Amino acid sequence: MHAADIDFFWTSFWCYLVSFLAYTVFVSLKRRSIGIMATVLFCVALAFHTAGLIARWWISTHPPFSTMFEYALTMSWLVAVAFVVILARFRRMVFGVIITPILLIVLVIASLLPKEASKQLMPALQSYWFYIHVVMAALAEGAFIIAAGGGIVYLIRYRGGDGADFYPSRDFLEEFISRSIRIGYPLFTIGALFAGAIWAQSAWGSFWSWDPKETGSLVIWLFYTLVLHQDIRGKWRGRALAVCAIVGFVIFVISFVGNLFFGGLHAYI
Q1: CA distance 35 to 102
Q2: Residue 163: phi, psi to the nearest 5?
């Protein structure tokens, strides 16, 4: 029998899936009523998602950050909350057809991970630096995922054709992607790198050990450093920025999944 938190997560997954299908119909038919229905379904999914995280916290007696399964669920929850904020701020339901499948991908990856909830954290995780590291990294990667969603919408808009005017303008999307990356970058720098290094020193006695996860984080940071540098210089804008946002998401997924195969100090699932 599944624990209550797992049942909540599965229910949220199916609600996200139905919401994605509804958003797809909304984009195809361009009927606002269908978009509203899709948004309601998304909010229902988010409610179950939230209930699952609360139940997980209650069962394990600590915040749901201690395993890769919990991290994936927390990060995807942050993306879902950010999407609701975007809907409230910009009224752009078209983003739903991009954000929901990205959420589904993260949740599918999470479903393949060990799901047992441990009430006793291993010594390496018993540090407030660990929570700072994980929360800020999740916020940063959530912002990068949102940027990737904007990048996909931009490319759809860039292709033009029938219904192109249904999507936000290129200028809006360009600024949306740029701001998302600019929000995520300092969070990732401080949380994933600096706070992570301090936590590593206290947990393992070394600020840096070229662990596969650390190496992946460094690659992500270097990539977004280059993208942000070129964006500020005005070199990589428009389509180039959109493509880079999508490539960044791919690098993140490879880093996340790679941790499962290469092991290392971060393989604490």
Answers
A1: 18
A2: 85, 5
**How many C-alpha atoms does 262 have within 13 Å on its Cβ side?**
16
Do 83 and 153 sit in the same domain of this protein? no
Domain hosting 79: range is 1-112
Residue 118 domain-assigned? no
Q: Comparing C-alpha atoms, which of 79, 207, 206, 98 is closest to residue 150?
A: 98
Q: How far is CA 44 from CA 11, 12, 17, 51, 63, in A?
A: 10, 8, 12, 11, 23
pLDDT in tens, 86-134: 888 888 888 898 889 989 988 998 888 877 776 666 655 667 777 888 8
| One domain, residues 138 and 264 | yes
The helix/strand/coil state of 208 is coil
Sign of the alpha-carbon torsion through 137, 257, 146, 175: positive
> What is the CA angle 101-75-67, rounded to 5?
120
- 98 shares a domain with 224: no
Confidence class for position 38, pLDDT limits 50, 70, 90: very high
Task: Count structural domains, the chain.
Answer: 2
Question: Based on the domain organization, do 22 and 150 belong to the same domain?
Answer: no
DSSP string, 245-264: HHHHHHHHHHHHHHHHHH--
User: Are residues 127 and 106 part of one domain?
Assistant: no
Write down the pTM of the prediction: 0.84
